[in-house]
Sequence to fold (265 residues):
Amino acid sequence: MNPLIATGLPSHGAMTALSVNLNKVALLRNTRTLTIPSVTHAARLALDAGAQGITVHPRPDQRHIRTHDVRDLAALLKAWPHIEYNIEGNPFHNLMDLVREVRPHQATFVPDSVEQSTSDHGWTLPEDGERLKPLIDECHALGVRVSLFMDPLPEAMVPARAIGADRVELYTEAYARSHAASAGTPQHAALLACYAAAAGAALCAGLGLNAGHDLNRDNLTDFLRAVPGVREVSIGHALIADALELGLTETVRDYLRCIHRASAP
Fold:
């Protein structure tokens, strides 16, 4: 049975897609010399629950997602041709070798350093453009869509499109922190307006729009209501944390409900 129908949700069309980031599943597994929890089993559960994509962010030290996970997920997703496979990372580190081998649907370029625990800023454009453009061109030659991880700066969207990016992923940590601390205040409304302006600039430039980082069940609906045109959110840390309480299947369904509420009149 279609899990979206089973949970009373419409199938995905114009609504924002949910891509589940599995890094934290791999991080837990890597604390022991065992194979549990299984990244591929977690992917199956998420997809059976209605997720429309799988995201991984393999780093050079392989502290969570490892090269074999990237390959195992690529093999698994051959049976799910409608599901998007998104591989994130720094294209000047280990990302491009994996993109060349696996050819995911989407490569999200993220300017993180080797020692960072998590991503904390977007690309600087047009300054980074000269380095990024040849790699974007290579991805296109491989049939891979490119999304650039970006801060919510309207003026950066035309340069992103000019170097060939297909989408941008708005970095949402600032929004998430503000929502937790000051939702409903003028300051929070002003920050949301910045995100909406960046989204509008991206759409006007011909870019598709993704979003991610610290989105959760408390703040996701409000963000999607305020920011137009988001095609995809990738969510990992909060989603896996919620799954410890609710189970992965019910957690994915609840995130889908959050997305559905954002499009409800």
